[in-house]
Amino acid sequence: METSNKSNLETPLCSNQHRNHELESHTSDQCCFSREDVIEEAKKQVWLAGPLIAVSLLQYSLQMISIMFVGHLGKLPLSGASLGSSFASVTGYSVLLGMGSALETLCGQAYGAKQYHMLGIHTQRAMLVLLSLSIPLSLIWYNTRNLLISLGQDHEISTEAGTFNRWMIPGLFAYALLQCLNRFLQTQNNVFPMFISSGITTLVHFVFCWVFVFEYEFGIKGAALAISLSYWVNVFMLVVYINSASACASTWNGVSKEALNDVFSFLKLAVASAVMICLEYWSFEMVVLLSGLLPNPQLETSVLSISLNTCWMVYMISVGLGGAISTRVSNELGCGNAQGAVLALYVMIVIAIVEGTTVVLVTILVRNVWGKLYSNEDEVIKYVAKMMPLLALSDFLDGFQCVLSGAGRGCGWQNVCAFINLGAYYVVGIPSSILFAFVFHIGGMGLWMGIICGLSVQGIALITLNALTNWDREARKAVYANQKAEVMTNS
């Protein structure tokens, strides 16, 4: 094993100068793209994005399905499960999702560089870090009730939320592993096993919910337990596939002690990835919290919650597109093909515009009926109809920035994107929401207008960042980073 690794290591290092020269000649000679190139790239991205969108929607649906079952138990369990789920997303799921996103850079570029064995090493290293992080996060979930009460939430609802989150703790560790396994397969363009396992898991989850909530009458505990078991079912299926499929034979060579090396480098990128994603996710949750301070808080909170749920559902499409462009950019940069990365970005921008325009049209067309899916009250239905045009605009901007952020993850720009998100949402977005809602008295619509301001600033900053990028230099950086990672891993 060690001899093999040394021979793999010596080859790219000895050919470093030749590789850099090859990069410069390769990228400078290609200034335009043929129609065939564009069509071929579009096919690759649709092939990638389709299953990734489905995976995002299916995995997102697990919590929603459990909450739907809890909704038949009464208002108090429903409120507790909803609050607990929101708290779990902020304090757990978004953090692990962000940390796992570092693999989009590391595994994606390693796969492009044909350093296939490094995918398994990077993934195992991520598993160790995310599982370790899940321990303190689980302690936060265990104390959900006390934390929510200290934040001024209703005691009864907080107690239900605490119960819900405690029974979801086993699933937190499965979710950590799932983020790593998903990125491991995604970055080598092997997405259909993820789609199949997520589909089966969703079907199994319906059965779990029915059995635990209604048959065994575990109530809210059963709904949370169903989520935990479903995540473990998904992990089990992917582990079996990865260890048995010939498609993963070169990228997964079993457990290796090399994963213990150079953990600090992974942590640097993973923390930046987590900050980048959490800053964005948390800003949307803050809008719902702010709605509780408005006049008629029950109406405002209900409508903002419906708006946020709608936004997250549409956002899953953008997550799939972002994952696809992240994979394509990281793969191309990893093999030193700067122009391939540029072509991938251009094609995905066109796809994002088409997808965003379609979402805008559909959102506006269903604005008068969408509220009826959530409520029978005319006041809520009419308010949701007024919010829908703002949702349409935010969905368009959110989809566009998600694609540009995905390209950023493919390049390893998590630090820069984190600062962009900090400025966009917490210097512009949230203050604008407060200004529109509480100073100009526009209410819940004002809160969402502030989010649109933040999305606009984020989009402009990301467009500028991509436009000013020297892609030849990014390709050379990616090649060097892969070589350095292999050296550090084997040292």
Could you list some keywords that capture this structure?
mainly alpha, 491 residues, Protein DETOXIFICATION, 84% helix, transmembrane, antiporter activity, disordered N terminus
Describe the protein's architecture and organization:
The two termini are 14 Å apart. The longest helix has 38 residues, at 297-334. The protein is 84% helix and 0% strand. The protein has one domain. The relative contact order is 0.13. Mean pLDDT is 88; it is low at 1-30. It is mostly helical and 491 residues long.
User: What's the structural domain tally?
Assistant: 1
Estimate what percentage of residues fall within beta strands: under 5%
Average of pLDDT: 88
Number of helices: 17
Order of helices and strands: HHHHHHHHHHHHHHHHH
Low-pLDDT parts are 1-30
* Separation of the first and last Cα atoms: 14 Å
Helix content: over 70%
Over the alpha carbons, how many angstroms does the gyration radius reach? 23 Å
Structural class: mainly alpha
Shape: globular
**Quick one: how many beta strands?**
0
Characterize the biggest β-sheet: none
Summarize the structure.
This protein is mostly helical and 491 residues long. The chain is 84% helix and 0% strand. It is built from 17 helices and no strands.
Outline the fold blueprint.
Blueprint: H1 2-14, H2 16-28, H3 35-70, H4 75-100, H5 102-112, H6 117-142, H7 144-150, H8 155-186, H9 192-215, H10 220-244, H11 263-291, H12 297-334, H13 338-365, H14 378-411, H15 414-439, H16 444-467, H17 471-490
